[in-house]
Predict the 3D structure of the following.
Amino acid sequence: MRLLIVEDEEKTGNYLKQGLSESGFRVELAINGLDGHHLAMTESFDLIVLDVMLPDVSGWRIVKALRAANNDTPVLFLSARDSVEDRVKGLELGADDYLIKPFAFSEVLARVRTLLRRGDSKTEVDRLDVADLQLDIRSRKVMRNGQRIVLSTKEFNLLELLMRRQGEVLPRSLIASEVWDMNFDSDTNVIDVAIRRLRKKIDDDFEMKLIHTVRGMGYKFEAENVE
Ligand code: CA
């Protein structure tokens, strides 16, 4: 894992570099905004720890430039400022998290690890494809055979679960807990109703059915012609 730290205060920069290096990261330190901006835009990092107040190019400008270039490297902002406005501005510009100085190193490390984990799951897959059905996880768009299908949030989550576990028989109890946060004993009629609605949207108009009922067991998502 390669990290970039952009921090003009020598003490803080070195302290972060040392701590993160000792924690097993490869660390690049830029001591001003110009170098930080250049490195962030031209090299590839798993995460950027970015001071907001830099004497030349501000952290805000750097994160703005990154996001404008479609670079979604996670950014952890460091700042001595503590107004809600600044926090909101940072997050609006595309920072992923915000840490107020002074901070304990353990806190930086925890935030860095959390952001890296989040980044992992983001890049893992952003689109699921089964036959002619596509589900775009980031934009939450669903297309079948080139046609846009509009789903409710629950329907989308249900479809995502089915597609992620395609070919597996999913019991109603599992669907209930994954999509509705309900426990095992809950009324599973909710699931049957939701499946029916989902079928109507994604299967009814197509010859190849994707959602299959496995009697007495649950549901299965699979591309096959006969049910
Ligand atoms: Ca600074």
In short: DSSP finds eight helices and twelve strands in the chain. The mean pLDDT is 88.
